[in-house]
Amino acid sequence: MAVTKRIIPCVDVDIDDDGEPAVYTGVNFEDLKYTGDPVEMAREYNEAGADEFVCLDITASAEGRETMLGVVEDIADQVFIPLTVGGGIRTRGDIKETLRAGADKVSINTAAIQNPELVDEGAAAFGSQCIVISVDAKRRYNEEGEYYERVDGESCWFECTIKGGREGTGIDVVEWAREVESRGAGELFVNSIDADGTKNGYDIPLTHAVCENVSTPVIASSGCGSPEDAREVFAEAGADAALAASIFHFDEYTIREMKEYLDERGVPVRR
Questions:
Q1: Is 12 tagged catalytic?
Q2: Close Cβ partners of 174 (under 8 Å, ≥ 6 residues apart)
Q3: Which of 7, 31, 90, 254 has its CA at 20 to 30 Å from residue 229's CA atom?
Q4: Helix (H, G, I), strand (E, B), or coil: what is residue 125?
Q5: Residue 213: what pLDDT?
Q6: Beta-carbon neighbour count of residue 213 at 10 Å?
Q7: Domain 6-264, what fold?
Q8: 3-class DSSP state for residue 135?
Q9: Catalytic residue among 12, 51, 194, 196
């Protein structure tokens, strides 16, 4: 029996002008606009048939603050599907507190790059299934990478960035994916800064490059504008899950509609 592909809605959470948590949606990690309340949106997606739910505190790492654990607790009370939480997780203690607040998995980016041993420590202490390594990738058209893909007739590699895409690292995404897999990461969350919010489709070359070089499950993120985009990233890039935000947040498609579209085209999904 074929392994089913997962459809995962995601909310990017920040603190609004009144000091309250709020969901924001943007393009290329910029021009963020208010979208809704994270707890209410989590409840709605749980009822809508999402396979999992992802909540990312998008400024915690850049601002050097902790993840909003109160929000995690409130969301965990509303969802009965796997919950992944990311943003501001820097230590083994942070992982423990986030899981204790109700998360099933933690997504780590900046801290893992700055301290790769955190991946080993987290996997050993809490199990690989809890450790999701998030990668915010940016296309680079120079000779400084390790793994290259053809994009619009040109050869490019993908650089890991940190602090919400604000800083480059010089680290090749594929090389990093292979390393964190060897350290015990249970899943890879691959975001494309170039595709983020564009609704022009997932970054197929990026996702393909990672999927071809690791056996760890890969969640494709950024750029989904239609159910066909999800079908494409499954069929052409080999992703295990498709994450989407805007098309669900603004009621362009429902999760049920996406799953029906995929099922009709032979993609195994949970109905």
A1: yes
A2: 146, 147, 157, 158, 209, 210, 213
A3: 31
A4: helix
A5: 97
A6: 15
A7: TIM Barrel (3.20.20)
A8: strand
A9: 12
Q: Are 83 and 40 in contact (CB under 8 A)?
A: no
pLDDT of residue 30: 56
What is residue 63's three-state secondary structure? helix
Which of 51, 57, 136, 196 is catalytic? The answer is 136
Q: How far apart are CA 50 and CA 56, in angstroms?
A: 17
Is the separation of the CB atoms in 184 and 119 below 8 Å? yes
Question: What are 35-84's pLDDT values in tens digits?
Answer: 778 999 999 999 999 999 999 886 665 565 456 888 999 999 999 999 99
**Segments making up each domain of the chain, as ranges:** 6-264
The sign of the CA dihedral 248, 249, 251, 252 is negative
Which band of pLDDT confidence, cut at 50, 70 and 90, is reported for residue 116?
Answer: very high
Token digits of residue 97: 């507190």
